[in-house]
Amino acid sequence: MAVALIADVQDESSLKACCEIIIKAYGKIDGLVNAAGGNVPEAVLQPGDDLFSMNINGMKKAMDVNLWGTVLPTLIFGKKIAENEGGSIVNISSVS
Fold first, then answer.
1. Is the pLDDT at 25 greater than 90, yes or no?
2. 13 band by pLDDT with thresholds 50, 70 and 90
3. Model-level pTM greater than 0.90?
4. Closest residue by Cα to residue 93 from 40, 18, 14, 33
5. What is the dihedral of CA 33, 39, 43, 46, to 10 degrees?
6. What are the structural domain ranges in the chain?
7. How far is CA 16 from CA 20, 29, 53, 75, in A?
8. Do the bridges between strand 88-91 and strand 31-34 make them parallel or antiparallel, or are there none, so unpaired?
9. What distance in Å separates the CA atoms of residue 13 and residue 91, rounded to the nearest whole number?
């Protein structure tokens, strides 16, 4: 049986709701793959730019998705994985 769910990795209540659906359907969670991320154009330095040209708000948007979009699911789903006394969490990132 497969269950298709949609969640926002930056929205705690969305993730918790998905976690509970999975627990109800399968009884436990064995693994998590964190692969959320995105290229935020305003966070990317262009050729010829230097560090002092960085768009801080753009960088914050990129960090929110790429960092906290990994940490938050890990906290929510990882807790259930730990309760099973076993499982795996895989984090995937990009070079950018």
1. yes
2. very high
3. no
4. 33
5. 130
6. 29-91
7. 6, 13, 38, 10
8. parallel
9. 21
